[in-house]
């Protein structure tokens, strides 16, 4: 249902903007990811409030969403599976971010994460699937640039957390970026396929 709605939404936006079919496909993919994130946020909201990690969960979710909207990434075979796994990952990382970590270690992780982001963007962005893959060179370059802008915004947010000594929030941004970037890599796709295989599907869609 989400995929169908996303395609209709993308078609309407594409009609108004005069976009070609490749651009409409990009819109549809981005809209579908966005809608999934919105529904996940609703689930995450209730759980995170109960566990008192709402702000942490929000930062992590927005970071993952920002990277995946333009960067792409692996998906599980069903939406319900994505919802459960996505919520579990976000809440788990939010709880993990509350662990006390020395500031120099957190800053070092931020630098490593930035280097990883540059490598992933150059190597795999935009990451698609067999059914949704961007092959046009110019479109791929545009997606890389858009993802790079997201990473620049992320780096600025990291700088703000460092300035205000909000190391817990800095760690949230790092964990969210690592999770989002991981789904773009071949390892992320293999993990999704392994989960789907364990649940009775040969490969994700």
Description of the structure:
The protein is 79% helix and 0% strand. With 205 residues, the chain is mostly helical. Helix 2 (21-51) runs antiparallel to helix 3, helix 5 runs parallel beside helix 7 and helix 6 runs antiparallel to helix 7. 35% of the residues are buried.
Outline of the structure:
The chain has 205 residues and is an all-alpha fold.
Tell me roughly what share of residues is in helical segments.
over 70%
Over all CA atoms, what is the radius of gyration?
Answer: 17 Å
Largest sheet data: none
Please state the overall shape, judged from the principal axes of the Cα atoms: globular
Residue windows where pLDDT falls under 50 for at least 5 positions: none
What is the string of helix and strand elements? Answer: HHHHHHHH
Mean pLDDT: 88
Structural class: mainly alpha
Distance between the termini: 14 Å
Indicate the proportion of strand residues.
under 5%
Could you list some keywords that capture this structure?
205 residues; 79% helix; single chain; mainly alpha; globular
SSE map:
Elements: H1 2-17, H2 21-51, H3 54-71, H4 79-96, H5 103-123, H6 137-163, H7 167-184, H8 186-198
């Amino acid at each position: 249902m989400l995929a169908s709605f996303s395609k209709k939404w993308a078609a309407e936006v594409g009609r108004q903007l005069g976009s070609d079919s490749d651009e409409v496909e990009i819109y549809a993919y981005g809209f579908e990811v966005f809608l999934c994130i919105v529904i996940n946020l609703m689930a995450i909201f209730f759980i995170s409030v109960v566990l008192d990690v709402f702000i942490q969960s929000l930062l992590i979710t927005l970071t993952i969403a920002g990277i995946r909207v333009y960067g792409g990434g692996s998906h599980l075979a069903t939406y319900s599976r994505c919802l459960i796994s996505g919520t579990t990952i976000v809440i788990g990382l939010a709880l993990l971010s509350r662990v006390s970590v020395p500031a120099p270690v957190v800053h070092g992780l931020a630098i490593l994460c930035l280097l990883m982001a540059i490598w992933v963007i150059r190597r795999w962005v935009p990451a698609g699937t067999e059914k949704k893959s961007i092959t046009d060179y110019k479109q791929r370059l545009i997606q890389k640039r858009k993802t790079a802008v997201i990473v620049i915004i992320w780096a600025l947010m990291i700088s703000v957390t460092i300035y205000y000594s909000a190391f817990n929030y800095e760690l949230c941004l790092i964990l969210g970026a690592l999770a989002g970037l991981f789904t773009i890599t071949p390892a992320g796709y293999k993990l999704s396929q392994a989960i789907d295989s364990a649940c009775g599907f040969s490969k994700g869609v």
